[in-house]
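Illustration: ArfGap-domain-containing protein.
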Amino acid sequence: MSRPAQSKAQNDANARTLRALVKQPENKTCVDCKRNDPRWASWNLGCFLCIRCSGIHRSMGTHISKVKSIDLDIWTPEQMASVQKWGNRRANAYWEAHLKAGHVPPEHKIESFIRSKYETKRWAKEGPPPSDPSVLDQGGAAASPAAAAPVSAVSSERCGGR
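Result:
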């Protein structure tokens, strides 16, 4: 019932990839509190976290956020694919779509902010997270819902009805 072990070479390659990902400008700070140098990730949400926010994510349960260490854990191909295709910018384009751009939660409200963000989807884009998060690249975090849809998917009725 156990998974076959990954090779050391694969684990080393994953570690290099993770180190490169957290050096990208959008991943250099925690997705939630904006602290520098995140060393944790929520692989199912595809975002990078500081240690404090990773603890809050863990406390929400694995049905919401699945947390791993960038430095200490072994990563599966599925987990790697998720953080590679998402990243903090795309994650926040979805989870903070209706939050004022540049918002940084106050220190004393970080747990409440994180729970509102992921448990109740308070500022999330309408609908489930896209299977291809690159569609979120077309607009900023505060973009309208139509901005992330392909042009062919936006009907003239919808555009005229605004």
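Reading the tokens back as a structure: The mean pLDDT is 87.
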